[in-house]
Amino acid sequence: MTRTDLTTAPWLDWPGTRAVMAALEVARPGGARFVGGCVRNELRGVPVDDIDIATQLKPDETLAALEAAGIRAIPTGLEHGTVTAIYDGRPYEITSLRHDVETDGRRAVVAFTEDWAEDAERRDFRLNAIYAAADGRLHEIVPNSVQDAIDGRVIFIGDADQRLREDYLRILRFFRFNAWYGAGMDAEGLAACERQKDGLAKIASERIWKELKRLMEAPDPS
User: Fold this and answer.
1) 107: alpha, beta or left, given left = phi > 0 and alpha = psi -120 to 50?
2) pTM for the whole structure
């Protein structure tokens, strides 16, 4: 059965989680949700270490909201909309909702948006595009994404070839996520990786090496 909430997730009650979400809530009620690995791993029953948050606030508004709450804020990637909050030594990565304006297979030029669907549709895999409110209620924008996370299915959002042409590093991410979570490789995704494999030549070696290291750390990297 598909879960409808994460209300029992222990990290929802971490002091830092509550403080950061409260600060964002003051600035934009209902405008911040958990996303990515913390939601995916909770659905999988895997320990959660890193907390990622998506917000309708613009980066400068996020900085102001955190500073008003007395929370240390670091502008770690403002051009991509990312601010990192630090609470009791734990980082919380907060990124403004965005959509791609231009992509070249290596990096994207983005514009900020308030549309959750636009933000979800630019992500790589369905299991990475699940949002959860501060109280743990799930928001499934991409169909089947919650069940994908539970089952460990790694499926590209929309057209797999297009997702790969946006960032060819996603080829390696496809294999990494399958090594960690895969319930059998998606044939369409695998075929797209084969078609787009030459695009990896555009990716900096440092990014490739970082992704390969994370792949090799998987329980079954083969």
Assistant:
1) beta
2) 0.93
